[in-house]
Structures are given as structure tokens and as C-alpha cells.
Specification:
Elements (H helix, E strand, L loop, with lengths): L4 E5 L4 H12 L3 E6 L7 H10 L4 E4 L5 H10 L2 E6 L6 H6 L1 H22 L3 E7 L10 E2 L10 H22 L7 E7 L1 E3 L18 H9 L6 E4 L11 E2 L1 E3 H14 L9 E7 L5 E2 H12 L5 E4 L8 E4 L2 H7 L7 H14 L6
Parallel strand pairs: 1-2, 1-4, 2-3, 4-5, 5-7, 6-15, 7-12, 8-11, 9-14, 10-15
Antiparallel strand pairs: 10-13
Helix pairs in contact: 1-2, 1-8, 3-5, 5-6, 7-11, 9-11
Bound molecules: nicotinamide-adenine-dinucleotide and UDP-4-deoxy-4-formamido-beta-L-arabinopyranose.
The site of UDP-4-deoxy-4-formamido-beta-L-arabinopyranose has 18 residues, from α7 and β9.
């Protein structure tokens, strides 16, 4: 049997590059489209070194309809995993147009081309950030949505668009209906265990883990812990950190699930990808120091605007319907993040 081809948008990025490794190792043919706005081609050189296989690369913007149509004409695509997008919350407040144009309009162009090519299997990178603030800290998929920044709203809008187009197909009993999985990621961290691919943020990192690693290696002087007066175990923010390799394995399970009964007549379903366990910022720092033997210089600073006290997944639905659950623990995540950082102190440069 010939290999199924998966089109991976944003395949050179942090999560996308890890997905390419797992897809190639699982026996898929991988075709990547990336404009390298937030990644480097070196990540794909490393994917090749890890797997001994060469993914097909198209350097293009997903908003370029002609370029996308050409790719669909050239390749026999079974399904699309759609990672491409901008993802920095703070930047999205300063450049909302860019975020809606890149994320929402880019997805519309992709959907149009997929529809024309009659490729209607899609796995979409959504985020826990689509949930509205709630008094309950453990989010299940049926919780109300209500993102609070342009980045989150772009993800929420895309979710609505995907649900609507899939519903229309189901109502109209389309011969080949859309089959769509929305994966809501909690906080992906860590790196491939080879230490060859990992997260390579531009400039000063926004997210906790790259910041902690860069303080530990001496690139940054001190971590600010944003608030220690939250109603949590030690006053610092609690999040559901998930190993990036566990996360991308969820995508491979989702590709298989598209063939299950629940998607037979077309469907669009959301699944949380998280461990179900939350850790505080201080727990992260302490565990990082324990597993790496490196001190992390930090100070307590005021709360960061827009932060929640506590947020973690109820991952039961992904286990029941995708047969997926996270396998790696916090030590694994931090050891792998540190291996990547020490092997690549300047990232991919
Ligand atoms: P990333 O920035 O490392 O990867 C995104 C990739 O998409 C990059 O390689 C970038 O060059 C590419 N890209 C962006 N816009 C493009 C366009 N218009 N055309 C073609 N390529 C384009 O980000 P990531 O952390 O790997 O995240 C992947 C996806 O997962 C994103 O959609 C993000 O919103 C989502 N997500 C990420 C997190 C997280 O914490 N990393 C959490 C939840 C959801
Ligand atoms: C984690 C915890 C901070 C940095 C963000 C996006 C979300 C998703 C993942 C894409 C919080 C604390 C952080 C620092 C700190 N991305 N912290 N000092 O905010 O949970 O989620 O990334 O979809 O949309 O909002 O992740 O890593 O920024 O913060 O104390 O320098 O670490 O306050 O409690 P967050 P994060």
C-alpha cells in the first residue's frame, strides 16, 4: 500500500517540526508548507537527521491561493494538519489585523483550496485559550468559549467557521463531508529527546519554559514570576504543561479517528490535549533545578495582565474517543527542554 500523504502547514515551527518527525516515523509521507515567518529551514534539516527521511517542502504563505492550489494539484493529499499561524498573545493586542489576516483569512484560503481539491480531512491547532474564564479550573470541551485577546479570538473564530462548514455539509448530506478535529492545546513544552529540535523563540521569550531555560543557561539574567498572590497551592499561576511529543502523537491519533464511526457522516469535534495535572510556576522552577542541577534566578513580580490563576485540562474525551493520553511526566518535559537548550544555546542559528 502506498503511503498516505499529510500536508502539514507550519511544519517548520516548534510543534510542526515535532509532528513531522512522528508522522514520518509512523509511515506517512509528509508535505510541508511554511513561509518561515517564525521558523528556520534548519529545523527541517534536523527532522531529516532524526528520521533519515526527507519531507517535501514548499516555501509559501497559506494566504497565497495559487501556491496552495499548485501544491494540492502536485500532491495526493489525504489530510491536512494546520499549524500555520501567529501565536503571541501580547503581539496580537498590538497587531490585531495581522493576527486575523494570518490566522483567520489564511485558514479561509486553505479551506477554499481544500474544498476545491476535495480534500476534506482536517486537524486544526486550537488552544485552551478559547475557553472563557470560569470559576472551575479544569476545562472540559463543552465549557463556554470566550477568548479574551485577538490571538485567542482568531482561534475561536476559526473553530466557529470549521463547525459551520462541517455542519452545512452534514445537513446537506454531502457525498464527501468535512471531517474536522479541533485540538485544544494546553501548555506545550519540552523537546524531542534527541535534543536536535525544540522551541526557538525570536528575541526574549514570552512563555515560561523558554524563559526559565535561558536564565539557567545565562542568556537572561532573571525570571520574573508574575504574581504570588493567586488562590493556588503556593500563590503562583498553575498550568497544564504537556510534552510536545505527547501532543503531536495526539494528532496522529486524530488522523486515525477521522475514519471512525463518529466521523462517518462528517463531523467537527473538539478535544483537549493536556495531561489533566496542573503545576505552579514555583513547582516548575523547583523541578527544573532538581533535574538539571542548575539554579534559576527569579524574583516575584506583579501579576501579568490577562493571566488566569489556574487552568488545566479534563483530557477524558481524548482518551475515550481518540485513544490518546499523555505519557511523559514533568521531569521528562524539563530534562528534554534542557537538553535542547544546552545542545543549541543559540537555537537553530
Ligand atoms: P510556531 O510559530 O513555532 O510555528 C508556526 C509555523 O507556522 C512557523 O513555522 C511559521 O513560520 C508558520 N507560519 C505562520 N504563518 C504562516 C503563513 N501565513 N503561511 C505559512 N506558514 C506560516 O508555533 P507553534 O508553537 O509550533 O504553534 C503551532 C500552532 O499551534 C499555532 O497555530 C499555534 O497558535 C498553536 N498553539 C500553540 C501553542 C503553544 O504554546 N506553542 C499553544 C496552543 C496552540
Ligand atoms: C505560564 C505561567 C505565567 C512567563 C500562553 C498563551 C496561550 C498558549 C500558551 C497558544 C503563567 C507564568 C510566564 C514569565 C511567569 N499559547 N510566567 N513568568 O500564559 O498559560 O499561555 O501560552 O495558544 O494562549 O496565553 O503560558 O508560558 O506564558 O505562562 O511567571 O516570564 O507562567 O504568569 O502563570 P500561558 P506562559
Amino acid at each position: 500500500m502506498s503511503k498516505q500523504t499529510i500536508l502539514v502547514t507550519g511544519g517548520a515551527g516548534y510543534i510542526g517540526s515535532h509532528a513531522c518527525v512522528e508522522l514520518l516515523q509512523a509511515g506517512f509521507k509528509v508535505v510541508i508548507v511554511d513561509n518561515f515567518s517564525n521558523s528556520k529551514v534548519e529545523s527541517l534539516v534536523r527532522v531529516e537527521k532524526i528520521t533519515g527521511q526527507t519531507p517535501t517542502l514548499y516555501q509559501a504563505d497559506i494566504r497565497d491561493k495559487q501556491a496552495l492550489s499548485d501544491i494540492f494539484a502536485q500532491e495526493s493529499i489525504h489530510a491536512v494538519i494546520h499549524f500555520a499561524g501567529l501565536k503571541a498573545v501580547g503581539e496580537s493586542r498590538q497587531q490585531p489585523f495581522n493576527y486575523y489576516h494570518n490566522n483567520v483569512y489564511g485558514t479561509l484560503v486553505l479551506l477554499e483550496v481544500m474544498n476545491e481539491a476535495n480534500v476534506k480531512r482536517l486537524i486544526f491547532s486550537s488552544s485552551a485559550t478559547v475557553y472563557s474564564e470560569s470559576t472551575c479550573n479544569q476545562y472540559a470541551e463543552d465549557f463556554p468559549l470566550g477568548a479574551i485577546n485577538p490571538y485567542g479570538r482568531s482561534k475561536e473564530m476559526i473553530e466557529h467557521i470549521l463547525r459551520d462548514i462541517s455542519k452545512a455539509d452534514t445537513v446537506n448530506k454531502s457525498v464527501s463531508p468535512w471531517k474536522i478535529v479541533l485540538l485544544r492545546y494546553f501548555n506545550p513544552i519540552g523537546a524531542h529527546e534527541s535534543g536536535m529540535i525544540g522551541e526557538d523563540p525570536n528575541g526574549i521569550p514570552n512563555n515560561l519554559l523558554p524563559y526559565v531555560s535561558q536564565v539557567a543557561i545565562g542568556k537572561l539574567e532573571q525570571l520574573s514570576v508574575w504574581g504570588n498572590d493567586y488562590p493556588t497551592i503556593d500563590g503562583t499561576g498553575v498550568r497544564d504543561y504537556i510534552h510536545v511529543v505527547d501532543l503531536v502523537k495526539g494528532h496522529i491519533k486524530a488522523i486515525s479517528a477521522l475514519e471512525n464511526q463518529q466521523f462517518a457522516a462528517g463531523n467537527c469535534k473538539a478535544y483537549n490535549l493536556g495531561t489533566g495535572t496542573g503545576y505552579s510556576v514555583l513547582e516548575i522552577i523547583n523541578t527544573f533545578e532538581k533535574v538539571t542541577g542548575r539554579p534559576v534566578n527569579y524574583k516575584i513580580a506583579p501579576r501579568r495582565a490577562g493571566d488566569l490563576a489556574e487552568c488545566f485540562a479534563n483530557p477524558a474525551l481524548a482518551l475515550a474517543e481518540l485513544d490518546w493520553s499523555a505519557e511523559k511526566n514533568l521531569d521528562d518535559m524539563l530534562i528534554d527542554a534542557w537538553r535542547w537548550q544546552t545542545n543549541n544555546p543559540q537555537g537553530y542559528q
